[in-house]
């Protein structure tokens, strides 16, 4: 491209992209990764892809409110518009200094995203964005503006237009085009327009005031009142359909003092701090919540160790099973859904895949339990932060009006990870120890991502709604972060700050504020430093830092309990894992909190004996781990259950019962409640049963006996609580919100490929036979003759190649690969032999070999080719 061409104003988006440097192109591709999926062949294809509806809608949805307002103003501005016209539309006649200061950033962002192109005196919104944002009767503009005079009078009769000119004091014209132009000039002239409006009755002015901020459409009868007739006669209201009138855009802008928006929002709303706490108290509270979270997840997994609830046919938990889980965890059902989904997202539970499919712990659960507590927490918190599955929607309805169930399908919301990270980043921007006002967080998120679809409802007329997905996910994030221990008392704790990669907050020098929830802190205005989730390597480092910060906050696990005479044991804090495991089998948890209370019962003692413990083992265990003497009632309970345990033996016959005491077997046979077991005597000490061994064990226990299961060799079977595991399972993969952001390596390779492809498609070449005198440079804004491949015969192709080897000149060729894909390339031939040409390919920036029979044709480059 010549110097003159580079300095000229671009005539298309492709030319504007061609004038960008690699840093600017990288910024575009990083912000709109869908543009390189797959990598475009040249800049013309990149520009075409950047203007497609799906890509433009996606780009608009990711603009902040002020950048979107700027794009909306360009959509109602002349095409093209100057920067001065844009500034007048955004700041009004008085040119708001805050808006003027923020406008360069917004305009630069739109340019970077390839939504706007052109020099400052000829700014153009890409055509698709203009179609999406410009006013129309079907899709009103968020600006509240209507059509221009030219658009509104498109179907009006020439006589009627001349009548309007006469009514406003303009001279008649010979054609409608000049008449409409004169009327538009009048409405755009502030002085003449003020004089015209001053002659209207007050009722007419009130009608205009009702329409000025939108919607601009109104209804009139076939015989309008005098004050409406005055507006219609002067063209201040123009008919668009029978009984419908519209306020022309030029009139509305005059009444608005030139502003396109009623309330421009150049500055993001601040995140307000509701209260502040000492950072040490926040960290301690969060650590307590984190420890409780580990306990809840561990309790859930133990509850499902032997096989959890059945999997519904459509997938997920039934409502009844979710209620049972909530009761077992002693939490409300929505909270139970959160814990279940958290364990599932961390890969700790999954479906076992059996014919009678059930949920159970995975092998990863056993590995997770071996980790130190801080690392177990970071595993859970990291899975929560990146998961797209959103437990908050459980109980709602999907698109087919089916109930959304926990662990079921259709719970993925691709925006969830971004919202979670952004909410925590906003909390990280507050002074350390400060908790936010929830509504201020939601207002900030709405400013950052205001658009929910290509046609956004006008929201300047009333309070913002919070029923959109991002607001709901933000609310869930605040509550889930507190449950998980990422925050404490609503403020971001140090481990949570490290988890999102935020820098350590400076401690305030001023005195600590009161800690009451009603005490307000100063408003926080600056933008938080964290803007995007960290990459995988950074995330691993952040996780390690969070674990390091959390570890000293956890209390040291205890190696003892306090036994009491009422058959209970009190654990005054978290127990060592081995002690907790054994005690969880030997006793039932009666209450939880700062101290956990366990209760010993005949059933719990029998459970420990079934697990292979002897009475002597249990006595020694209690004596070793109790800071108080072992109460005599507990000793008697263990001895009594142990004395009866194992006297009856149950095996598979279908099942049998054997006992050295035949009187015990006589007692069983005489009991009418045992009739359902189908027992009969095989020998004085053996009974056979029709029931299976598991049912026989339960039946005899229901009769008050304490049987033990035995193996085929006659040994007592040890029943362990962690006997059921699923096959190895991977954690659910998050559903991405569009293509992933490209890394630097991919960006560099993609830009190089696009540049090379653009060189091949735009390099000028000498006209060949049948070319009609045109070269690739004659193709206008987008390059080489509409993308046609050069066509030459085999002999001419070979001769031109051989000549280029001798002269060292570059050639422009067309090439069709083995898959039939055609491309244009610029090559410098090095060697031609054996039906192949070896050449330096400027398109690929490397030496390649091409079969000559796949070269469609060849052309020499023009002498001025760059």
TrEMBL record:
MF terms (GO), sorted A to Z: helicase activity
Biased composition (Gly residues): 769-778
Residue ranges with Pro residues bias: 729-742
Cell cycle listed as a keyword: no
Composition-biased stretches (Low complexity): 533-543
Residue span(s) of domain WYL: 796-858
Signal peptide positions on this chain: none
Pfam family, one: Helicase_C_3
Biased composition (Basic and acidic residues): 510-522
Region (Disordered) location: 504-543, 724-745, 757-790
Keywords, alphabetical: ATP-binding, Helicase, Hydrolase, Nucleotide-binding
Protein name: Helicase-associated domain-containing protein
Organism: Streptomyces lienomycini
